[in-house]
Amino acid sequence: DLASIALQIATNTTRKNAAAICDLDYKHQGTPEAPVWHVCVKAHVLAAADLIAGAGPSFHVGDYADVLKIVSEAKGAGDTCENAFKVIHKASPVADMDHQTTERCGLAGDLIRLLLTK
Fold first, then answer.
1. How far apart are CA 16 and CA 47, in angstroms?
2. What number of other Cβ atoms are within 10 A of residue 106's Cβ?
3. How far apart are CA 69 and CA 1, in angstroms?
4. What pTM value is reported for the model?
5. Residues near 39 by Cβ (< 8 Å), separated by ≥ 6?
6. What whole-number distance in Å separates Cα of residue 49 and Cα of residue 113?
7. Cα(7)–Cα(107) distance, rounded to whole angstroms?
8. Interval 50-99: pLDDT, tens
9. How far apart are CA 64 and CA 86, in angstroms?
10. What are the backbone angles phi and psi of residue 89, rounded to the nearest 5°?
11. Distance between CA atoms of 98 and 101, rounded to whole angstroms?
12. How far is CA 9 from CA 12, 26, 62, 86, 109, in A?
């Protein structure tokens, strides 16, 4: 039950953060930072989509290895975004959201990993 709850929290967090980053991307269209925002959007939207479409259904049928793979990949969305801002030598304005995604996907992954040994 804990792994299921953690996966839902990770999914909801990633979905919320993806929506917020999309809004910020829209506000930065035409600016020099626009390509960096596009990297962040792509990373977070793909992570959210994979969690929604893949992780949840796989969890419910007991394919924990697949869920762990998806959650692990989603966990990297925050790093992808942070690294994009580092390339242009700017601090990421969405560092807190990136950290939330990384942290919550990491926790979900740790709990799902425990199910693999059963």
1. 11
2. 17
3. 19
4. 0.90
5. 80, 81, 84
6. 21
7. 8
8. 999 999 999 999 999 999 999 999 999 999 999 999 999 999 999 999 99
9. 34
10. 60, 40
11. 5
12. 5, 26, 18, 28, 12
